[in-house]
Amino acid sequence: MAAARRRHATPGRIGRVGRQAVPRPRVIMALLLLLGLVCMMLLDGFLRAEVGNDQRVRSEASADTVPGEVLAGGPILSFTDGTARTQSVPDKTIVLTFDDGPDPEWSEKVMDVLDENDVPGTFFLVGSMISRYPDVVRRMVDDGNEVGVHTFTHVDLSYQSEARVKREIAQTQLALAGAAGITTTLFRAPYSSKNEAIDDYSWPVYQRLGAMGYTSVFIDTDSEDWQQPGVSKIVRWATPEADAGASVLFHDAGGDRSETLAALPEYIEKMKAKGYTFTTVSGAQQLDTAAGEDGAPTAGGAQPGPARAGAQGDADQAAHRKADTASLWEGRALLAAVAVAEWTVPGLAAVLAVVGVAVLGRFGMMLLLARRHYRQRNRRRFSWGPEVTGPVTVIVPAYNEKECIASTLGSLAASTHPIEILVVDDGSTDGTAEIAESLGLPNVRVVRQENAGKSAALNNGVRHARHDIVVMMDGDTVFEPDTVHQLVQPFADPRIGAVAGNAKVGNRSTTIGAWQHIEYVMGFNLDRRMYDLLRCMPTIPGAVGAFRREAVLEVGGMSEDTLAEDTDITIALHRAGWRVVYAEHARAWTEAPASLGQLWRQRYRWSYGTMQALWKHRGSVTDRGPSGRFGRVGMPLVVLFQVVTPVFAPLIDVFTLYAMVFVDFRASLLAWLAVLGVQLFCAAYAFRLDREKYRYLLMLPLQQLAYRQLMYLVLIHSCVTAAAGGRLRWQKLKRTGEVGTPTPGAGAG
Questions:
Q1: Could you give the angle at which helices 526-534 and 325-377 cross, rounded to 10 degrees?
Q2: Mean pLDDT lowest for which of 44-53, 257-266, 372-381, 571-580?
Q3: Which of 31, 425, 592, 703 suits a disulfide with 707, CB 3.0-4.6 Å?
């Protein structure tokens, strides 16, 4: 921690430290994590929801440009030298074709039936399904079945551009190469089962595919099993007239295929009894070609179709091609990415469901406890005990605060409570100490020290303090006249070791300032009410906090072990048996970061320092007795709500976009708006308790969309730094001094 102990940079190192404020490799890693997740979600959505599918299916169109012999020809369409040629399935021959697979349940059971009856099938596969279930495809090929392309997303190609058509085919071939090490020359277009479905819009598609070497396969007999009409009707509708051969359509995916599964063995038995043989598309092509060479059609039974093993050999030669090395590895990479997406997205969805419940539970708990806290602390008869009127010491650690120090000390000079003001100048080089002395304010002492950091400055102030109660504030903060008086009243109870005040954003006129204002009122002060009642306050804010001097000395003062000395000492006080409470009426106005870069640096330090403090005090979970309350209650809550939840909460927005694109836009939007409504209600209640103007809540939706993503990246950045064992310097933020001396009740409205 040696690098972390010097909290302020020396003059010669300010520029270098500034450049290291956001270590680029870790920022890039954080962004890559988010980008990787988005890519996984896009891939998963592409596979599951057929992104880009406009759901249009062309039902009626002219076929003026389609040759008549194609419309009236056989179900197998190929192109030789650009000329369309159709082939029929020979008499007494059945080509069993299956669409829309593979499916891990139904395709497997269909193949079991085919194996039991020793007949082959030709499966037209959807590329997205191949990517999800490659093992099923591998079995299809190994069992001697033939496979063909049924596009990647089951889209009507007649509506798509030429580039989209090529992409649909190429992606399916890559998936097939990765799954079974082969490619195929067979193709069937979705929503185009028979030749008569070819029209003027789809005909150019078939011509282009024919030029690419594809054979388009149609049917002449449809079982219509997708309608689930009953086993007997499926068998009857799949039976060709007379002794004609047929390319027959079944489905092995796309819904409940129990009727198909029941009909298949009955159908196969029936057709075999009638003297039919079964083959693949390639087998039928070879039979038709052989019959043409002999000058006569092949009669059923005179020349039986190829046996199952023979059909596979023919298929290997005619339809299946061994994938080249590049396609093979690209396909495997696609399947690996899909496997990761298939595991990652549902897993994250489950985690986010838990996080969502936790977030909503937190909102509910905050509302209930905040209301109870408000009613309890604002009762007329509520009192910590005898009024605390004795003088206290206010410690102001200052390092190059020339813009703010006059306003800070001026606000303290107006205090209604007797105070000693102790300015600890931590080696300032801009004349901060001289400005403090030149103001000529009563009860102000300036203690100079070499630059040693904020913790050292505070400890030095505690040693020089003349009173038993010390108030600590930042050099860029201003107090209202009664802030100190309100802040020290809880010390009437001798069990209380520290008191947290109500820190507010003074420079809230900008968008970034308004975002932080909402965060301070809702995220910090509403939280503190909850933690106060649960008696596990995790942090005394550096901008406004009071301590019993005895308690600070007992725990060894402000530690330099972490970058969050305020969280560190608060937890230490809990473990020492002291109570820590919240004084909502002790308001302080602080200058929040005015740019995204400064905000990043501040929150990066806060989140990293909080992780350090939690890790340092991890032993608190085993503490016993009253001093173990923070470990039993506070530690789990802080880890859940300040580390785990902030990491995952922004992903709710990402998943909302995912659901809008791939699932249900309206339902997803309504769900997101409902959560936003809950947050808005909580924020409005927090603003009511703090008597803040509601107009700032107009910024809440934008804050949720933009600010939350920034906080996510900051926290991921901190996690990466912690996991890598990195160390972080403290960087001083640029101040403008725009937060002036407040008037009583300045925050009301």
A1: 70
A2: 44-53
A3: 703
Give backbone dihedrals phi and psi of 263, rounded to 5 degrees, phi first. -80, -30
For residue 300, pLDDT over 90 is answered with no
Which residue has better confidence, 346 or 54? 346
pTM above 0.70, yes or no: no
Cα separation of 658 and 672, whole Å?
12
Q: What angle do CA 71, 74, 77 make, to 5 degrees?
A: 80
Q: Which two tokens stand for residue 32?
A: 């890559």
Residue 156 appears among annotated catalytic residues: no
Contacts of 156 (CB under 8 A, 6+ apart): 56, 57, 58, 189, 190, 191
In percent, the amount of the chain with pLDDT more than 90 equals 52
Mean pLDDT across the stretch 206-217? Answer: 94
* Amino acid sitting at position 636: P
Question: In the 8-state DSSP scheme, what is residue 481?
Answer: T
Asked if 122 and 94 touch (Cβ cutoff 8 Å), the reply is: no
Number of alpha carbons in the 13 Å side-chain half-sphere of residue 741: 13
Catalytic residue among 154, 251, 320, 717: 251
Q: Which residue type is seen at 348?
A: L
Return the ∠ at Cα 70 (arms to 65 and 73), rounded to 5°. 155
Q: Are 413 and 389 in contact (CB under 8 A)?
A: no
- Both structure tokens of 134: 């490659």
251 CB-near residues (< 8 Å, 6+ apart): 98, 99, 100, 101, 225, 226, 257, 260
Contact 277, 126 (CB under 8 A): no
Tens digits of residue pLDDT in 381-413: 788 889 999 999 999 999 989 988 999 999 999
- Describe the crossing of helices 24-49 and 708-723 by its angle, rounded to 10 degrees: 120
Tokens of 643: 């580390």
Task: Quote the distance between the C-alpha of residue 640 and its chain's center.
Answer: 17
Q: What is the C-alpha to C-alpha distance for residues 399 and 496, in angstroms, rounded to an integer?
A: 30
**Triad 664, 670, 672: Cα angle to 5°:** 100
- How confident is the model over 720-735, as a mean pLDDT? 59
Rounded-to-integer distance, Cα 710 and Cα 703, Å: 10
Model confidence at 569, pLDDT cuts 50, 70, 90, reads very high
If 0-12 CB within 10 Å is exposed, 13-18 middle and 19+ buried, where does residue 458 land?
buried
Q: What are phi and psi of 499, to 5 degrees?
A: -135, 130
Kindly report which listed range (52-56, 57-61, 573-577, 578-582) carries the lowest average pLDDT score.
Answer: 52-56
pLDDT digits (tens, 9 = 90+) for 138-177: 999 999 999 999 999 888 888 888 998 998 999 999 999 9
Closest Cα to residue 563, out of 603, 594, 516, 533? Answer: 603
How far apart CA 171 and CA 128 sit, in angstroms, is 9
Task: Decide if 574 is catalytic.
Answer: no
Is the model's pLDDT at 329 over the cut of 50?
yes
Question: Tokens in use for 532?
Answer: 């106060």
**Axis-axis angle for helices 134-142, 106-117 (nearest 10):** 10
Q: Which H helix or E strand runs over 106? A: helix 106-117
Q: What's the token pair of residue 649?
A: 């909460």
Please give the backbone phi and psi of residue 152, each rounded to the nearest 5 degrees, phi first.
-90, -35
Per the DSSP assignment, residues forming a β-bridge with 449 are 426
pLDDT, averaged across the chain: 84
Q: Which two tokens stand for residue 715?
A: 């926290």
Furthest CA-CA distance within the chain = 120
Nearest to 492 by CA among 583, 402, 429: 583
Cα separation, 558 vs 356, whole angstroms: 36
Model pLDDT, residue 533: 92
Cα–Cα distance for residue pair 649/645, rounded to 1 Å: 6
- Residue (of 405, 602, 588, 418) closest to 504 by Cα position: 588
Q: Which of 44, 99, 288, 690 is catalytic?
A: 99
Spatial contact of 506 and 588, defined as CB atoms under 8 Å apart: no
